[in-house]
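USER:
Class, as today's exercise, take the chain set out below, and explain how the chain folds.
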Amino acid sequence: MLEAARSLFSEGGYYEISVEDIAAAAGVVRSTIYNLFGSKVALLEAVVHDALRRAGFQGLRDAMAREDAAEAAHAMIVAGCELWATEHVIFRKVIGLAAVDDAVRGLIDRLEASRRDDMGRLVTRLAEQGYLRAGCSEERAVRVFELLTSFEAFDHFFTRAGLGPAETAEELWLQAQATLTPSAS
């Protein structure tokens, strides 16, 4: 069912696709989807979580676990770009949908809150290890890293500038370095 929903959501618009369409593509009846997920939005949330898993969310966790905070920051930007690129269509559509749909906005808000918390922990580590540039507060650094690890920042370079995931990561890392000491490079 997740694969059928993912495929349909990737190809068409969320509002144009019915639960019946998804059920037919999955070879199940509509009630099966409602019994398992409860709603179309909950199914979309499952698709997003599956996309995160498929795209390599564990790579972000592995990057964050690096002992050196500057290495962790760089690795998180690289892993994030790889993640965003792997499921680009799904993430772009869901984030766009969140702008006009309150229920989907709630899903994105929960994911963003988690990413914000991760950036807060990363910046605390950067500060503790002496990597924040003089005059750069932790609050400002969190905002910078939150922006640089966002889908929107990735999408700007990937879609609008036509860069690949690795080149996009390097562009974003160059921006991140403005908040870090030269020794973090």
